[in-house]
Amino acid sequence: MTSDIDWVELATQYGTPTYVYDGAELAGQFRRLRDAVHDSLEIFFSLKSNPNRSFFEVLQFAGARAEVSSLAELRTVLAAGADPANIIFLGPGKSETEIAACVEAGIYAIVCESFDELDHIDRAAGERGVRQRVLIRVNPAAPIAGSRLSMGGKPRQFGIDEEAVLASGGTLTGYRHADVAGIHAYLGTRILDHGVILANTAYVLDLADRIVESTGIRLDAVDIGGGLGVGYFDNENDLDLEGLAAELNPLVDKFATGHPDTRLMLESGRYLAAGCGTYLMRVRYTKKSRGVSFAVTDGGTHQHMAAIGIGSFVKRNFPIDVLSGSAGEPGPTDLWTISGPLCTPNDTIAKAVALPALKPGDLLGVRRSGAYGPSASPVYFLSHGHPAEVLLWRGRSFLVRRRDTVEDVLERQVVHPGLIHDAPPSDRIPKLGENMSSAIDAREIREFLRSELSTILDKDLPDLTDDMNLLHEVGLDSIEVVEVLMAMEDSLGLVIDPDELSPEIFETVGSLTTYIRASLANAPADAV
């Protein structure tokens, strides 16, 4: 990101918290990738990483195609003038409306993730009297190490298992209106070792030939996925793009020479988007608590969920800088914990980060924040809403998404006057433990947890037992732990004390139940 940005002026003009995107850096990152990889590889920007229309327009201007995963993303790129021939649509749970929109728009390909979905695509295309090109997303038979989040090689909702595709015979060529003519494979994300990307690509290209041989489909396109990583943390190095290109390009060249009519696609979201973004926030208060220096800001993890650790229980800090006030001034530094306005101890942007003396009004910037920012965060937690987004382009700044107001947050609620007070007394739902004459019953808490966890995980859970491991058996990850904390605060009226939290609390159902019972027992009477 360029160093001549006037952060004070931006904060004055647009307020804080605000995401600021440097358009020149964004376009430059695309060009660096475009110049490095083989000419045959077409680069598709994954809008899931940043779905802002103006953001995409910068990348499209630089030469990017579009990979979308929702109706809103599809409409975004079409409104931005994207050529339907350069759009693909992914996602394991496409609605009938989304499939129909893809067919009607005439996009290049729908990436199909199940045989059931293939039936739906065939029917939608048939109803419109067209043939729709389809790429089969394949879940590879074996995972490849080196990904921060594995998308294949395991039981996954993504794609059709490799062995099922290879065993399908002529099934894939038997559809009248779904024209299966290529494959897609995405094995993992945030890969920093270029050797892993090389191995992934070699596997996918070989797999494409094996699938053509076993099924007889045409090979109009092969999408090798992506997963190009970004180094966020002190112990991480950025992907060696030069090293990747040196080994990847000969492999791609060989395949392209043997398949001159096949489009080769490379997806990239985080790698293109992350570096251009700064999450700009202002310090509201500073304080000391038992020897720890805190700066409480107007920004938080509700707008930058990635800052709590990219799906990891171990908190690691994004790069963060002082952008006003103490910036560049000589003097001692201190270790600061940077927190936000939320009523949860997880609302911590950075811990023990070395910064100069901070004071209210100082501006802080969380760097590498152009990908998976507000659209991947619970922006409506505590009803705060979406932050503003600003694009810097050719010497000017542009508001490309306005900040949610209180009215924006409230206007979509549907109010029914008299709904509660006119209801029969028996319809009122008792609070947890309300009918208990003694200590809160552990069974009632387990049922509360089962209900909340079923909602969070989007699956029906069986009755919980105390010895169930919340991570390995129930299947919680760190983001879902935050949602459990939110449920405890919102549904039970508890205010979670961050000093009481430890990994042991979330080890088993029993340990979490014990913590909740103790917290309820010590809570004020009107909280339970």
TrEMBL record:
InterPro entries the record matches: ACP-like_sf, Ala_racemase/Decarboxylase_C, DAP_deCOOHase_LysA, De-COase2_C, De-COase2_N, Orn/DAP/Arg_de-COase, PLP-binding_barrel, PP-bd_ACP
Modified sites of kind N6-(pyridoxal phosphate)lysine: K48
Pfam families: Orn_Arg_deC_N, Orn_DAP_Arg_deC, PP-binding
Biological process, per Gene Ontology: lysine biosynthetic process via diaminopimelate
Entry GO MF terms: diaminopimelate decarboxylase activity
UniProt superkingdom: Bacteria
Keyword Lyase: yes
Domain Carrier: 440-520
Keyword hit for Glycosyltransferase: no
Active-site residues annotated for this sequence: C343
Record keywords, A-Z: Amino-acid biosynthesis, Decarboxylase, Lyase, Lysine biosynthesis, Phosphopantetheine, Phosphoprotein, Pyridoxal phosphate
Known cofactor(s): pyridoxal 5'-phosphate
Similarity comment: family membership: Belongs to the Orn/Lys/Arg decarboxylase class-II family.
PANTHER family assigned: DIAMINOPIMELATE DECARBOXYLASE (PTHR43727), GROUP IV DECARBOXYLASE (PTHR43727:SF2)
Protein name: Diaminopimelate decarboxylase
Organism: Micromonospora marina
